[in-house]
């Protein structure tokens, strides 16, 4: 841990460290509880789901569930607070929704993709946002599909490569702009540096750009408001913050970029309680805590009179190196400000507490 | 004894003078004057002083041995003794000076050490203080977490109790109504259960069923649609990295050029059929012949292809394989080297080709018994593809061979 105490900078305190016997690909807090979920792949090639509860200075294993295929990602985003069903994507392209009280048979199951589902996101659940609960999955087969748990077998939206075009791996997906029942966008990042924004209301491509490095993770600062900011992280230690409020007809969205770590930035996660603070996790096992500051004027007119966005600035609040292996997954607790869990490729899951976030 | 010295001599002049009170000689030299007195008996030179000032020099000398001296100076001092005493004096003075510097050095070192230790202690203290602060922070945060967690538990419990109560409340009136219905009419069981459900729907305010209601308020699933996507073109199947772009461009450029260059050797080529003028077709032909065991034929095909286009690395690579089979080891080495030359810059795209080139060249070297060169190539191949078990085994074998030959020779 670095940084000078005594200043008002937030500190990242490592609260609990738990060694696992499998590779953990994703870790998520169970909403409205002190329980967390780890998803991954056991050495045998099967999938593992472990449910832990925070007890003082350690994690107590409540439940371990084994599944035939390794699990890559999961989300609670599309489920109600009472049900708290987990949606997972596995290495075989299957999308499953599980009731953790009765995990033998999934509540919903579909072979959504031909190859591994790299990323999953959910919206419309947990009492956040409006509209139908939906799940989006992005896969190595180059497609992004949106699913409604009430509709079996076929997706409600599918973003596929044009006939004959060679596919690129989709590495990350995120929902956004879900501020009323009709509006919704999906943002997808691909390994060739493409970022595409799909508007689900008009079923069209709203915007695309290329950030010159494979896109590892995209996230809107909040899913349930008018699109405000989008952070996209990539290989080679770079990430971009786009101001999504003003779209210029040719230039798209304004952005500011930062080169933080020498290695891949695997994940970005915004603090649920403050949308201008986010944490990036890196391939060198480090975590960086950032704050975005808005510019004086968020938009200005260009020479032809069309509105153009103005990007703000970033400041690094804290950084800490926890491991020598990449930290591949990160999740903030939606209930306790500053509590987060991260999983890394050294088969360890760590619970961290970030202090002094109130003073920012 | 008074001694006049130059009027106007300043303090610096005094510093330049040297006063030596060694055990038996007292001398003061203020150029151009020199005063020397050989005393009767030794004096204690550390405590004695000589003060120069005001046109006088005051000597304060302490006798080493308290005794009465016959006279201040030695009366019959012969030249030799004088000389001897003088030299001694000088030597002693030098020694003393040396000792003093030594002593000074030692004290300086000790002071330094002390200072260092003191700073270290201070830094330790600072570090401990920071650690303590951090610990406190950690504990505070852990306590808050516990508190929050307990709150969570309590609220969960409370909610589940609430649920149970409401469920209970639900069931009671239902039970009553069911009994009533049973008494009133003879409806089959399914019918009564249906009515039961219907009547509860009518209430519509219970927690269990509120979910169903909320679902009804949700919009219907979206109408399925597809959006077609175009990707930014990229030749390589690997992910895009900015730092590799320059290399990749170079490789692509080379490949593109290679395809375009066609060496023209006009007269002989006129006899060839159209397809025989295409290096790729010839390469395929060559590959087929190799697969069937016709190595000479394959070499011919590759030779012609190379004459048409000498920039395609795969031609040389495959011809090297043929030469290996034909035991034309030197030619195999030449061709593998040429292939490797053309396979620059090294990108993940041409990894396989490079591994093969190294392996073929390595094999040729080994068959020529040039084991060290062969091992170099195998190690280069392993560097590109470290997970290849066959390569590892072969490299091990070569190492053993080298050690064997070294031992025997």
UniProtKB/TrEMBL annotation, chain A:
- List the GO biological process terms: apoptotic process
Q: What is its main location?
A: other
Q: Which SUPFAM superfamilies match?
A: WD40 repeat-like
Gene3D superfamilies reported for this sequence: YVTN repeat-like/Quinoprotein amine dehydrogenase
InterPro entries cross-referenced by the UniProt entry: WD40/YVTN_repeat-like_dom_sf, WD40_PAC1, WD40_repeat_dom_sf, WD40_rpt
- Which cellular compartments is it found in? Dynein axonemal particle
Write one Pfam family the protein is assigned to.
Answer: WD40
> What does the UniProt keyword field contain?
Apoptosis, Cytoplasm, Repeat, WD repeat
User: What cellular component terms from Gene Ontology apply here?
Assistant: dynein axonemal particle
Q: What does this protein do?
A: Key assembly factor specifically required for the stability of axonemal dynein heavy chains in cytoplasm.
Protein name stated in the entry: Dynein axonemal assembly factor 10
């Amino acid at each position: 841990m670095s940084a000078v105490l005594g200043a008002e900078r937030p500190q990242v305190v490592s609260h609990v460290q738990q060694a696992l016997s499998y590779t953990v690909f994703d870790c998520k807090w169970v909403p409205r509880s002190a329980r967390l979920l780890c998803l991954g792949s056991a050495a045998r090639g099967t999938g593992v789901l472990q449910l832990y509860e925070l007890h003082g200075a350690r994690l107590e294993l409540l439940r371990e569930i084994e599944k035939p295929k390794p699990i890559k990602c999961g989300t609670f985003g599309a489920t109600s607070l009472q049900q708290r069903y987990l949606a997972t994507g596995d290495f075989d392209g299957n999308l499953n929704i599980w009731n953790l009280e009765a995990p033998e048979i999934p509540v919903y199951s579909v072979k959504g993709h031909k190859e591994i589902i790299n990323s999953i996101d959910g919206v419309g659940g947990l009492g956040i946002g409006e509209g139908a609960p939906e799940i989006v999955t992005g896969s190595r087969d180059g497609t992004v599909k949106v699913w409604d748990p009430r509709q079996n077998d076929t997706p409600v939206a599918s973003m596929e490569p044009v006939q004959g075009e060679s596919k690129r791996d989709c590495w990350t997906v995120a929902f956004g702009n879900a501020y009323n029942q009709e509006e919704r966008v999906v943002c997808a990042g691909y390994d060739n540096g493409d970022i595409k924004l799909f508007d689900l209301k008009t079923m069209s491509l709203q915007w695309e750009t290329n950030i010159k490095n494979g896109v590892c993770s995209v996230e809107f600062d909040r899913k349930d408001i008018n699109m405000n900011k989008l952070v996209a992280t990539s290989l080679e230690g770079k990430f971009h913050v786009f101001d999504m409020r003003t779209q210029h007809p040719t230039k798209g969205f304004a952005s500011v970029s930062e080169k933080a770590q020498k290695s891949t930035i695997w994940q970005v996660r915004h603090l649920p309680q403050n949308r201008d603070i986010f944490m990036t996790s890196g391939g060198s096992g480090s975590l960086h805590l950032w704050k975005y500051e808005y510019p004086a004027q968020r938009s200005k007119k260009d020479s032809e009179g069309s509105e153009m966005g103005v990007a703000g600035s970033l400041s690094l609040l804290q950084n800490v190196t926890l491991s020598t292996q990449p930290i591949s997954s990160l999740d903030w607790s939606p209930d306790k400000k500053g509590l987060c869990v991260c999983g890394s490729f050294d088969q360890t899951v760590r619970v961290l507490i970030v202090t002094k976030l109130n003073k920012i | 004894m008074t001694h006049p010295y130059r009027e106007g001599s300043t303090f610096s002049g005094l510093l330049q003078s040297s006063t030596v009170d060694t055990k038996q000689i007292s001398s003061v030299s203020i150029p151009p004057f020199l005063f020397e007195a050989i005393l009767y008996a030794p004096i204690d030179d550390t405590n004695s002083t000589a003060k120069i000032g005001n046109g006088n020099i005051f000597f304060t000398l302490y006798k080493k041995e308290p005794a009465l001296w016959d006279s201040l100076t030695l009366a019959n001092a012969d030249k030799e003794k004088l000389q001897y005493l003088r030299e001694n004096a000088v030597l002693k003075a030098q020694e003393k000076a040396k000792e003093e510097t030594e002593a000074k050095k030692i004290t300086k070192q000790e002071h330094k050490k002390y200072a260092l230790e003191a700073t270290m202690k201070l830094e330790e203290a600072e570090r401990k203080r920071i650690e303590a602060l951090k610990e406190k922070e950690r504990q505070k945060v852990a306590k808050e977490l516990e508190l929050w967690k307990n709150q969570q538990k309590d609220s969960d419990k409370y909610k589940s109790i609430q649920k149970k109560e409401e469920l209970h409340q639900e069931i009671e009136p239902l039970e009553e109504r069911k009994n009533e219905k049973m008494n009133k009419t003879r409806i089959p069981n399914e019918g009564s259960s249906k009515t039961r459900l219907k009547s509860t729907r009518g209430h519509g305010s219970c927690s269990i069923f509120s979910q169903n209601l909320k679902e009804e308020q949700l919009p219907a699933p979206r109408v399925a649609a597809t959006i077609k996507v175009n990707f930014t073109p990229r030749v390589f199947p690997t992910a895009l990295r900015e730092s590799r772009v320059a290399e990749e461009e170079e490789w692509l450029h080379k490949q593109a050029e290679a395809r375009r260059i066609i060496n023209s050797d006009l007269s002989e080529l006129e006899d060839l059929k159209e397809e025989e003028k295409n290096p790729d077709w010839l390469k395929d032909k060559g590959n087929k012949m190799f697969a069937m065991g016709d190595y000479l034929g394959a070499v011919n095909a590759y030779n012609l292809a190379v004459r048409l286009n000498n920039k395609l690395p795969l031609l040389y690579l495959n011809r090297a394989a043929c030469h290996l089979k034909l035991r034309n080891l030197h030619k195999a080495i030449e061709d593998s080297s040429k292939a490797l030359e053309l396979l620059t810059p090294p990108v993940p795209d041409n990894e396989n080709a490079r591994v093969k080139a190294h392996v073929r060249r390595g094999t040729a070297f080994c068959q020529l018994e040039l084991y060290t060169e062969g091992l170099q190539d195998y190690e280069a191949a392993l560097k590109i593809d470290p997970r290849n078990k066959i390569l590892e085994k072969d490299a091990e074998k070569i190492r053993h061979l080298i050690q064997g030959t070294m031992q025997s020779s």
